[in-house]
Write a structure and sequence with these properties.
binds pyridoxal-5'-phosphate; 14 strands; pyridoxal phosphate; PyrdxlP-dep_Trfase; Cell surface polysaccharide biosynthesis protein; pyridoxal phosphate binding; Aspartate Aminotransferase, domain 2; transaminase activity; Aspartate Aminotransferase, domain 1
Amino acid sequence: MKKLQMVDLKGQYEKIKGQVDQSIMDVVNSTAYINGPEVHGFQKDLEEYLEVKHVIPCANGTDALQIAMMGLGLQPGDEVITADFTFAATVEVIALLNLTPVLVDVDPKTYNIDVDAIEKAITPKTKAIVPVHLFGQVANMDAIMDLAKQHNLFVIEDNAQAIGADYTFKNGKKQKAGTIGDVGATSFFPSKNLGCYGDGGAIFTNNDDLAHTIRGIVNHGMYERYHHDVVGVNSRLDSIQAAVLRAKLPNLDMYNAARQHAARKYSEALSKSENIITPTTFTHKKCDVKCSICDTCDCHVFHQYTLRITNGKRDDLVKHFQEKGIPHGVYYPIPLHLQKAYADKRYNEANFTVTNQLVKEVISLPMHTELEEDQIEYITTEILKIVD
Ligand SMILES: *Cc1c(COP(=O)(O)O)cnc(C)c1O
């Protein structure tokens, strides 16, 4: 059996080495290291892939979220509702901009933001909702978009974990995750589903005016050289990273399909145990056409494969994995509303029953494009020894 790894970036690289090495050397030789043709080329390729009007590359996913919020003109004191169960970057940028984060509970099946909880949290100060497509599963965008329309709120999708996922609306229409709300943000951190070899990120929108505003914000608030109309930032995707991403983008559907295949194998082995809840996937019966990346037509691209261990043995499993050298992760061990930086007297524990439980039960298994069946068999056998 090959050595187990949480992610296998080397194995993935080796399969495309010739092309990636050439692309990187072309940038090195061109000396167009900043805003070179590769950046514009990648932008166009990604616009085409996502079927979105505008992609604005930037330096990382956290910047992408921050810049999206700046572009929408959110003002200090505006309330922004997001999920209590996510990576801290989502809430961090809300707080940094002096907006007021309002954390709400998540759905126990999908771990994504709970739509009823959003509705209850809306006040006259609410300006935006930030759904996070956690672990690769698209949030309930049908209901979120309806709610946003009803209350005149912006929707900013944190798509750092779900690039390439298709979302199928109730009426059968399909759209790529991150292109559904007013604006979407993603990360190209190396371990993400589309990762570069350093830091990178991008913002997506179909709104021409917003795209124009954001293109200025990422470039020091300049719309004309040395005219600074708004306070901006410096956030760029560098040309070498763009070249890597351009080489990898044509493989993204295949990469996501490999993740889905591994997820199916894990779930086949683990769903027999009554102490384990495997990730929920949805089959959209209304689709008559099978989507390009999977044969079940679900909208989960498995950035993480995350189980719930419901008999209190999660920590025993962590210990067993440590002893056996099996890589794993607990995403996330502490709900955001209990983090020192984001605690707020207004929060009531009774409103966070799901996140408070998830943090005790979740464990994420190795998940990447190079996983092999004997590895999955070994990992699932070791899990059942402890949990069953
Ligand atoms: C990775 C991630 C980010 C931040 O991306 P960086 O590129 O590391 O800044 C934001 N939100 C979520 C949900 C993430 O997983």
